[in-house]
């Protein structure tokens, strides 16, 4: 059966920030929202948005955690394509050398 620890499934570049956001919410209570890449069974990463709320009782102990996780891969791909289209228009209208613009686009 396919099982790995959660940490191994979250992209290494995203894990620390994601945990920092969750830990802040656990410590203070309140709303949290973060996103990360998650490794699927087919060894491909998908983008997920994780948001929720940590509710504490009068003694400041965690009473309830509720939230949702959404696959936002299509949204991220669309934003990347839109960013590329915008970069191409800017390169053409501002006569910016393509090599320089291409380097900026590839760093997205």
Automatic annotation (TrEMBL):
Organism: candidate division WOR-3 bacterium
Organism phylogeny: Bacteria, Bacteria division WOR-3
SUPFAM superfamilies: PYP-like sensor domain (PAS domain)
NCBIfam families registered for this protein in UniProt: sensory_box (TIGR00229)
InterPro entries: PAS (IPR000014), PAS-assoc_C (IPR000700), PAS-like_dom_sf (IPR035965), PAS_fold_3 (IPR013655)
Residue ranges constituting the PAC domain according to the UniProt record: 32-84
A Pfam family matched in the record: PAS_3
Name under which the protein is recorded: PAC domain-containing protein
């Amino acid at each position: 059966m396919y099982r790995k620890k959660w940490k191994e499934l979250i992209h290494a570049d995203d894990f620390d920030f994601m945990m920092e956001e969750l830990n802040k919410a656990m410590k203070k209570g309140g709303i949290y929202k973060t996103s990360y890449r998650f490794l699927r069974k087919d060894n491909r990463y998908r983008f997920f948005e994780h948001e929720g709320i940590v509710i504490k009782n009068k003694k400041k102990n965690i009473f309830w955690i509720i939230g949702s996780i959404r696959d936002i891969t299509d949204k991220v791909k669309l934003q990347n394509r839109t960013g590329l289209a915008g970069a191409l228009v800017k390169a053409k209208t501002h006569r910016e050398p393509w090599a320089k613009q291409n380097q900026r686009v590839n760093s997205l």
